[in-house]
Structures are given as C-alpha cells and as structure tokens.
Amino acid sequence: xxxxxxxxxxxxxxxxxxxxxxxxxxxxxxxxxxxxxxxxxxxxxxxxxxxxxxxxxxxxxxxxxxxxxxxxxxxxxxxxxxxxxxxxxxxxxxxxxxxxxxxxxxxxxxxxxxxxxxxxxxxxxxxxxxxxxxxxxxxxxxxxxxxxxxxxxxxxxxxxxxxxxxxxxxxxxxxxxxxxxxxxxxxxxxxxxxxxxxxxxxxxxxxxxxxxxxxxxxxxxxxxxxxxxxxxxxxxxxxxxxxxxxxxxxxxxxxxxxxxxxxxxxxxxxxxxxxxxxxxxxxxxxxxxxxxxxxxxxxxxxxxxxxxxxxxxxxxxxxxxxxxxxxxxxxxxxxxxxxxxxxxxxxxxxxxxxxxxxxxxxxxxxxxxxxxxxxxx
Length: 377
Prior knowledge:
The protein has 10 helices and 7 strands. It has 377 residues and is α+β, with helices and mostly antiparallel strands. It folds into 3 domains: 3-124, no CATH class; 146-212, Helix Hairpins (Orthogonal Bundle); 223-373, Heat Shock Protein 90. The strands form 2 sheets. Strands 2-4-5-7-6 form a 5-stranded mixed beta sheet, covered by helices on one side. The chain has a two-stranded antiparallel sheet with strand order 1-3. Helix 1 runs antiparallel to helix 2 (32-41) and helix 1 runs parallel beside helix 3.
C-alpha cells in the first residue's frame, strides 16, 4: 500500500475507534446489547490495523480501543467488583488480539519481502542467463560461419587455379580474334567486351579469395563515371532482361558526370544486385536505377517491383551463406557489401517505391583521376 493511503486508513481507524468510545459514553448502562455490540466492533480496527501495519499497528489500535472502552467501565463501577472485573477483562483481550495478529502479520510481511527479494534476484538471474544464452547462440552462429568460410577459403584456392587456366586460354583466343577482326568491324565491340569481362572475371576470382582470407583490397582500380558503369552492366545483362521482358529505367541527377567510382568494383556490385532484381521480378516487370549526389556523397539506388524482402530477414541478407534462392550460394551480396565498405561506402535495403526491394549504395565523393580515360555519355 502507498504511504498516503496508509495514513488515510490509519486516520479512518482512529475515527472508528473514537466513534465506539463516544457510543459507549452516550449509551445508558442498562442497554447491555448495545454495549456488547460496541465491544465486539472494537476488534475490527484492531485486526485491520494489525494486518496493514504489523505489530505496532495492532498494539497501537488495541491501546486506543482500551482507552475508548474506559467510559464503558465507569458505567459498571457501581455494579460491584464482579461486574467491573468481568468488563475489565475485555481490555486484556484487546491487547492480546492486537499483539497476536500483529506478530502474525509482521512475520508474513517479512516473508513477503524475503520472497519479493528472492523473486527479483531470480528475475535478474534469468535475464543474465537469457543474455548469456543469446551471446552463446550468436557466437555459435559466428563460429559456424567462420568454419564455413575457412573451408571455402581452402576450396577457393584450388578452384582459382582451375578457373584461371581456362581464363588464360579464353583470353588468348580473344586476343587472336581481336587481331583478325579490325576495329571498324561491327563485331569488334563484342570482342572488346569479351576481353574486358575476362579481365574482370579474373579480378573477381581474386576478390573472392581476398574476402575468404580476411584480407583488405590494396590496389585501387581504374575509375569511370557511374553512368558508364551502369550502362555497361545493363548491356551485359541484356539477355536476361529481354528473356523476361523487363523494363529498365535509368534516372540521374543533372551533375551525373561528376560522379565517378572504381570501375571493376562497382561493375561487380551492380551485377550482383541487378541479377537479384531480375530474379525477383516477374515477366514484364520493372527495374528502376537512380543515381546522383546528396551533399558530399553519391548514391545509386536499384529498385524493383518484385516480391520484396521481409523486414525481419533484411539483416540476414548480408550474412555469408544466407540465400533465399534454390541454387544461390549466399555470397553475392556479402561480397558486394564488402566491396562497397572497402570503397568507404554503405549499402542498405528498404522497400522500394515500386513495391519490391530497393538497394541503396552510398559512396563518398571521389576526385576524378585519369580524366582522359573517362568517356561521358
């Protein structure tokens, strides 16, 4: 009970005891029934006081009830010692009732406080146990990922050797074709694309190995305008886009040509994200690519009208080996995030204006280097 309520209750009990004393005083002595009723009513404030206030409350109200009982005793003074002592014994019962009930109530209050303290300690122990369990589960999950990454690193070393040898052969064949097809030939552009993609694939293999070994990428690739990079990726994915009749809309800010980025790194990132978008949308779907500047940063946003990503699963998307595709490896977006962070940027997922998912890449503004190699479209 709150302190204010305890004070109010005690005052009400005092009023009740005083009222009983007044009734004893104004009721004639021959009305024994009324006096017996008042006498029994005195046990109520004593009992209530003992229950709510413990020993001191029971004894205090017992003493006050005894004082209120004095007018009743004076009425029996003239009836002789036998009648007087019979009424006087009621005082002893008042004191005994207040003492016994007060002791019981005080003991229960102490037990209640003890159990309350014990309950709070148990609640604290449960919370600590819950927190420790959560940390253990997180550590176990990280350990599992570390073990898988370690295994992947070992497998990747052998796969890299197997992939690089065919790439070298394909690159040699492309060089031969480039010598035989002059630059003015309509198909010379496709040979250049082949040579460029072979080189990028070779860099991608190195990036995967770097990620699996936990190393940071040291060298900085060539720069290009983000518009050129986006157009290049869309051209490379043209077959998949046509197969599902997907409409691609590219929107840019007026100062788009001042936005440059690491060419090979961003091609790999955008390839991973747009491939996911192509798989997410249905036939005749839509993919919106926006890019521009916001303050001192640059952004690229890829939105689609697919089924989207559940907000409860967004945090898991960038975890290694987490995939929602039947044949996915769960590494594409992890590597993309790693690449973006190595460029000093961030990547996040939100619901797109088209109803699907929206991947937003934010990069710090870069100074244009090797400006002569950047072709503005």
